[in-house]
UniProtKB/TrEMBL annotation:
Membrane topology: Multi-pass membrane protein
GO biological process, one term: transmembrane transport
Name of the protein this chain belongs to: ABC transporter permease
Keyword Cell cycle: no
Annotated keywords: Cell membrane, Membrane, Transmembrane, Transmembrane helix, Transport
Secretion signal, residue range per the UniProt entry: none
Membrane-crossing segments per the record: 12-34, 103-126, 138-161, 181-201, 243-265, 285-310
PANTHER family the record matches: DIPEPTIDE TRANSPORT SYSTEM PERMEASE PROTEIN DPPB-RELATED, PEPTIDE ABC TRANSPORTER PERMEASE PROTEIN
Superkingdom of origin: Bacteria
Record SUPFAM superfamilies: MetI-like (SSF161098)
Organism this protein belongs to: Paraburkholderia guartelaensis
Pfam families reported for this sequence: BPD_transp_1, BPD_transp_1_N
Subcellular location: Cell membrane
Similarity comment: family membership: Belongs to the binding-protein-dependent transport system permease family.
Length: 318
């Protein structure tokens, strides 16, 4: 690759690190604005003011906010998210127990959503203006407009309450076979896939249409190449960068939708852990979970930018 490409990638990495720093300051400030007292929450309402003050001193909550932020940031850089105020366990250990479950849910959603979305987007672009294109556009637009909690609620009412096909709650401890795995993950994955497939399909369609309007496609058409051959042999190789960018940006949506899905289906993932931490006023755990989500989101955005840079022939060739 050219030096310009390396400089662009380095600048993107620097922007990601700067964004993480800004996000860390915002997260620390916002969690400090949450109502309630963590020490009072941990000791209960019957605790004496002296006991609450002693616990606040033990947690370091009586220190100035800037000092607490700098100490917290220094420990995060070292990989230490601190101690949970609710159960006196390391935040890193709590995250490690839940993160694999969230990654499993995101991975299964990706495996299901990406092939379907790419197929829908490419088919819609190939037959643009036809009844199939109009039907797929109407379907994707309608799906994007439906919020996740409504999809999850309807899925529970149909498949769990009325048909009794799937469990309403996701208990991973009951998984003993592949059939149990499918039943447990069916509704959470379906809920996440609805909006994810629609977003990814529309972005893929736009990327393929942009290539179909290029001059080399017109030349291939004049030479008698079929539509399928043009798309498979000419369009897709040139649209890999934009499509990878669309996939990465769409997958970053998972880190927002997974919060709603895990809460509704009582899925034991990182998002439900964060919701419980907010309820318990467990600030270090909330901060640790939010930083993990932000880092994962920025990693996907960075991946999309890198794919866009690498796919540019003017930057790829020396």
């Amino acid at each position: 690759m050219k030096r310009q490409a390396y400089r662009l990638i380095a600048s993107r990495v620097g922007l990601v690190l700067l964004t993480l720093l800004i996000v860390s300051a915002i997260v620390f400030a916002m969690t400090g604005l949450l109502p309630g007292d963590a020490a009072q929450e941990a000791l209960g309402q019957a605790a004496t003011p002296e006991a609450v003050a002693a616990l606040r001193h033990q947690f370091g909550l009586d220190q100035p906010a800037l000092q607490r932020y700098l100490q917290w940031l220094f420990h995060i850089v070292r990989g230490d998210f601190g101690m949970s105020l609710a159960n006196s366990l390391p935040v890193s250990a709590l995250i490690e127990t839940r993160l694999p479950n969230s990654l499993m849910l995101a991975g299964l959603t990706t495996v299901v959503a990406v092939p379907i979305a790419l197929t829908v987007g490419i088919a819609s672009a190939m037959y643009r203006g036809s009844w199939l294109d109009r039907a797929l556009n109407l379907l994707t637009l309608s799906t994007v407009a439906v919020p996740e909690f409504l999809v999850a609620t309807i899925a529970v009412l149909i498949f769990a309450v009325n048909l009794h096909w799937l469990p309403a709650l996701s208990y991973l401890s009951s998984v003993s076979s592949f059939g149990d795995l499918v039943r447990i993950y069916a509704m959470p994955v379906m809920t996440l896939c609805c909006v994810l497939i629609a977003q990814m399909a529309r972005m893929t369609r736009a990327a393929v249409l942009d290539q179909l309007n290029s001059g080399y496609v017109e030349m291939a058409t004049l030479k008698g190449a079929s539509q399928v051959r043009i798309v498979l042999r000419h369009v897709l190789p040139n649209a890999i960068g934009p499509i990878a960018n669309a996939v990465a940006l769409s997958l970053s949506y998972l880190f927002g939708g997974v919060v709603i899905v895990e809460s509704i289906f009582n899925y034991p993932g990182l998002a439900s852990l964060m919701v419980d931490a907010v309820t318990n006023r467990d600030m270090p755990l909330v901060q640790g979970c939010v930083m993990v989500f932000c880092a994962a989101y920025l990693a996907l955005v960075l991946m999309a930018d890198v794919c866009q840079i690498i796919s540019n022939p003017r930057l790829r060739q020396r």
